[in-house]
Amino acid sequence: MIARELISSVPVLHPSDTGSKALRLMNEYHLTQLPMVVDSKYLALVEEDEIMDLEDPDVPLESTEYGNTRPAVMEYAHLFEALKLFYDFKLSALPVVTKENEYLGIITKDNLLAALAKYNGVKEPGGIIAFEVDPRDYALSEIARIAESNDVTLLSVNTITNPVTGKLEVVLKTNRQELQGLLATFERFNYLIKYVFAEEPEEEALKKNYDLLMNYISM
């Protein structure tokens, strides 16, 4: 997924706009930044905090100090590049531009979160397994083979390095909710399971609810 596919339609600011107008638009669209655009060119990213510090919010923005930073992402950049900029600059909105700095629109935090959810299979039913391995022992091909041998599809694979232990934490989102067989295989291959989130099969849940009801009735 590329940046231009995540663009939202949000009003832009112009140098002649006042701080009050900027704050009103930010409040209306639930953003803490808005881009300033001049002749279709991206000029700056105006911050809510900067406007709040103005002695007179009704003066035009062109007569104030604004937009000390100009974060932007190119239109054909990958989603992950946009994510890095959101993190580095603590953004609620990220302008998308062409090579000629032509402003195309913004990516909002909500749009970015929705895209990440799709990438990680969040909406798909299934369980989650997390385990630790030494970085030198990490082999995605082996992990995928183990999953495949248990008739499990990996919807997403994420990794993060533990800064204390130096080990790699691997988080798998699967298409299966019953994961006992897969867990047993991972443990047989000496993977250290940290945690598991797996919904019970519907039959098991119904049986438990039925047993609880029978116990309640017999009290």
From TrEMBL:
A family per Pfam: CBS
Organism: Chitinophaga hostae
UniProt keyword list: CBS domain
Keyword Protein biosynthesis (UniProt): no
Ranges of residues in domain CBS: 63-124
Name this polypeptide is given: CBS domain-containing protein
Superkingdom of origin: Bacteria
Family matches, as InterPro entries: CBS_dom, CBS_dom_sf
